From TrEMBL:
<dbReference type="InterPro" id="IPR005066">
    <property type="entry name" value="MoCF_OxRdtse_dimer"/>
</dbReference>
<dbReference type="InterPro" id="IPR036374">
    <property type="entry name" value="OxRdtase_Mopterin-bd_sf"/>
</dbReference>
<keyword id="KW-0500">Molybdenum</keyword>
<feature type="domain" description="Oxidoreductase molybdopterin-binding">
    <location>
        <begin position="40"/>
        <end position="207"/>
    </location>
</feature>
<dbReference type="Pfam" id="PF00174">
    <property type="entry name" value="Oxidored_molyb"/>
</dbReference>
<dbReference type="InterPro" id="IPR014756">
    <property type="entry name" value="Ig_E-set"/>
</dbReference>
<dbReference type="InterPro" id="IPR008335">
    <property type="entry name" value="Mopterin_OxRdtase_euk"/>
</dbReference>
<keyword id="KW-0560">Oxidoreductase</keyword>
<keyword id="KW-0479">Metal-binding</keyword>
<protein>
    <submittedName>
        <fullName>Sulfite oxidase</fullName>
    </submittedName>
</protein>
<dbReference type="Pfam" id="PF03404">
    <property type="entry name" value="Mo-co_dimer"/>
</dbReference>
<dbReference type="InterPro" id="IPR000572">
    <property type="entry name" value="OxRdtase_Mopterin-bd_dom"/>
</dbReference>
<feature type="domain" description="Moybdenum cofactor oxidoreductase dimerisation">
    <location>
        <begin position="232"/>
        <end position="348"/>
    </location>
</feature>
Amino acid sequence: MRLNRPYLITRSLCPENMESPIRFLRGPVTPTEYFYRRNHFTYPDLSAQSYQVHIDGLVNRPRTFTFEEIRSLKSREVTTVLECAGNRRNYFRPRVYGERWEDGALSQGVWQGVFLGTLLAAVGMQDNVREIVFTGWDHGESNNVPGQYHFQRSLPLNAALDPDTIIAHSYNGLSIPVKHGHPLRLIVPKWYAMASVKWLKQITAIGDSFGGPFQTVDYNYYPDPVTDVGKYPVTTMHVNSVIQYPLDYSVLRLGIHQVEGIAWTGKGMITKVEVSLDNGMTWSEAFLKQSTSRYSWREWLFPWEVSEVGTYTIIVRARDSSGRIQPFVPMWNRMGYGYNGMSKVHVKILI
Ligand SMILES: Nc1nc2c(c(=O)[nH]1)N[C@H]1C(S)=C(S)[C@@H](COP(=O)(O)O)O[C@H]1N2
Ligand SMILES: [Mo]
């Protein structure tokens, strides 16, 4: 008999939004078949043109690079978590509208490509550049602003020039899968994944701040339920974690159970993961496995010895080297971004 294998979880078919079976994945690399899929539009049709990316705007020598040219340049590898800003949205109370992600709008693997700064140096940026805008080949109606748009996002110059911001051409050693941005995709470690624009068509240097709908309407935190008071843009990932085992509301037996999961952050690295079995009164440190790279999640485990039958709630929180810690209740915001409340599972223990 063959071993059972997990599946992606379907959230919507058109555009295709699928969740990774994150509780059933182990190890540092998410195989393509289990990588979550997050799309605003139907998939773009690939043609010969899709194998070219144009760099223009406030540059001295606007220029088209072909896929082959980019692939022949010196490349680097970046292993990173990609997490959708809407990951875990379904846990917000009061509930919010949007894709109903649980914990699996999250995956990671090894991207290979060229340092974006190399391409920008080749075209010569002018002094007044403030942001770089990235346009994907996909387009359609926006949910929140009337009109047709391409998926477009910008990065401030310092993030664009970070040595680990790359134009990727490979994932886990192979060409990027079509659904994940083939042939060329921007990869921006530390940022929520809306920044990592798939199917790159155009890169444009601008002298002010970009005003597209995926920059100034979506992907902003709106702390107020009705008005835009206090609105600010979504950028880097919060400190966060997921319990992979045991499953929520599972029934187990007395004995020792390995509570396990992953923790990640967009600022520094994970320094501690703690487990509480008494609603946060006391905490015990989980064992952190070696991190596999600077931007990857960290696996943790906690041997839990249970000697009494009953019902238990396991709560987990992670801390990072920037001094952040997961809150019991994260900041509510109207579009449901950046959920990082402590993970919690309920279990019943039988004899
Ligand atoms: N061109 C393009 N790039 C995109 C998107 C998109 O819809 N179109 N979605 C973004 C969002 S919100 C996320 S979370 C990630 C999802 O990447 P994946 O589908 O490879 O998991 O891609 C980002 N890049
Ligand atoms: Mo996303």
